[in-house]
Amino acid sequence: MSRDLAPFVSAIGRGAHVVCVHDSDADGVTSAVVWQRAFERLGFTHLTRIIPDRYRDAWSPANRQRAAEAKPDALFVLDLGTRGEPLVEGVPTCIIDHHHPDGIHPGTLVLSAYGEEPTPNTSIMTWELCNALVDIRDLEWIAAIGAISDLGERAPFPLIAGAKARHTGKVLREVTALINAARRASRYDPETAARILLTYDSPEALLMSRSDDLRELRNAREEVNAELARAKTAAPKFSKNVALIRVRSRCQVHPLIAQIWRSRLPKYVVIVANEDFLPGRVNFSARSVGSVSARELLVSIELPPGDGSYGHGHDHATGGSLPPERWNALLAALGFAEESYVQVPQ
Q1: CA-to-CA distance for 83 and 68, rounded, in angstroms?
Q2: C-alpha–C-alpha distance, residues 155 and 342, integer Å
Q3: Closest to 33 in 3D by CA, of 158, 123, 167
Q4: 227 with 253: CB under 8 angstroms?
Q5: Closest residue by Cα to residue 109 from 127, 91, 122, 123
Q6: CA dihedral 235, 331, 317, 238 (to 10 degrees)
């Protein structure tokens, strides 16, 4: 990955409207908070962050419209993948990402860590790139939260080790869980997670606060934990090398269940489908280990044209969001019997 952001930033006037579209998970939120603080210190005066809706597809028509309506002079896209078309036509764009590339638009600057070993996540990359432009060493703990969420606290990166030495792994894990709860709970509110990270200068101060934001995050975490305990009782069904687990929850518990079953069924691609997460959709997470790529399995299946998307993200961690008809078509292609299909509304 190129580590030089300076040429792109130097071409942006300090009074320009710079927009950052970022993911809603801990990696995306912490990356954006680091970005915002760094650009404030660089002297930029007109900054806007945009978090995609719960579908988390920045290139959907609705999210592209939101980005265009912000009227950016320059655009950053953090932790949301890449596509072969620009997010906003005619706007200088920089993408910072670590997922499998899904096309790269020729006019876009893409700073990607995909293929590096070990692979840093987006918050580590954003911190390193911005720290080369302005001193943001005090924001290391924020970037570490995103890294711990994506990579685990034992990932071999000095940033994680440094943050743990200064703040302890226990404190960082607690904040990480709270930040992720904002987008996993039934009430989708990742802006609360961003706002609380922008408010406090240490994870200890954040956890000791009596703010409404912290109270909301704690309530969200309790709801997610309760729903996760219920979803853990679901049992898998099998077809060839795929294990299918069906859950029903308004909370985003399907990625967590997929992580749990991936370690239990290492020879299978584990797919966890959540039929209640979004109205009229089946949202699902797919996980695999070793030489088996969950992403390759999904992209090898060509469904009839229609709404929804699937197969983006990482080689071993991907998923999608499909209406019932297309989801059932995907199950059929994977060899599952009709008893595993979801009911199609009449």
Answers
A1: 16
A2: 38
A3: 123
A4: yes
A5: 91
A6: 40
The answer to whether the CB of 52 falls within 8 A of the CB of 70 is: no
What does the pLDDT look like over 323-346, one tens digit per residue? Answer: 999 999 999 999 999 999 998 876
Please tell me the pTM assigned to this model. Answer: 0.95
**Residue 27 and residue 146 in contact, taking contact as beta carbons nearer than 8 Å:** yes
Rg of the chain taking only CA atoms, in angstroms: 20
> Are residues 63 and 45 in contact, defined by beta-carbon separation less than 8 angstroms?
no
* pLDDT tier for residue 25 given thresholds of 50, 70 and 90: very high
Q: Which conformational region is residue 78 in: left (phi greater than 0), alpha (psi within -120 to 50 degrees), or beta?
A: beta
Q: Is 176 helix (H, G, I), strand (E, B) or coil?
A: helix
C-beta neighbour count of 337 within 10 angstroms:
10
CA 182, 309, 336: angle at the middle one, nearest 5? 105
Quote the tokens at residue 236.
């898998």
Overall size of the chain counted in residues: 346
